[in-house]
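#dry-run=false #mode=assembly
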Amino acid sequence: RKEVEQDPGPFNVPEGATVAFNCTYSNSASQSFFWYRQDCRKEPKLLMSVYSSGNEDGRFTAQLNRASQYISLLIRDSKLSDSATYLCVVNKPGNTPLVFGKGTRLSVIA
Amino acid sequence: GAVVSQHPSRVICKSGTSVKIECRSLDFQATTMFWYRQFPKQSLMLMATSNEGSKATYEQGVEKDKFLINHASLTLSTLTVTSAHPEDSSFYICSAFRIGIPPTNEKLFFGSGTQLSVL
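#status=ok
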């Protein structure tokens, strides 16, 4: 089983739509979880951290289910500028590098 | 502004030559930096962990003699792709940890990446 698994997509949605991405991780000892956004041939940029209590930042909502080892990202009222690849990222215990999922591609269409 | 600077952003070279990529942490010391490689439509794959003042730790399958990493100072790590081949063509990106600073407390910062094309 891969350490971090995501549906690669692509997700093609119209402007204004709500879209949800899911991610599963294999290491139950993982401590920190993030969603990053990556545009083509650019560095990943932190979108938001993911907490067990769930957290929201504007149109973006992230959820973590430790029991199921599952992370989600919900984007409401999609904008054209949301088109990108969304990376599910997990931090293993200790001073270790982040582990990236393959990413889910989102295309928001006018 | 950028807190991790990576150069060059793009390089085209002939097969058999060596290419050096620099990663600098700006305004903070990074004892540990990470080098990733990303092929088209693939995830970022960790190549190695660069430790200041000591040898780098390479991931399984990454040739340490081909991908030379030097972390001679607390603000600079370099990756040298030696005897480059076309299959080394990829997007290389570095990252560095910085102790969380408000308001974002973001700890991991990425360089802007280097697109390497080997002819």
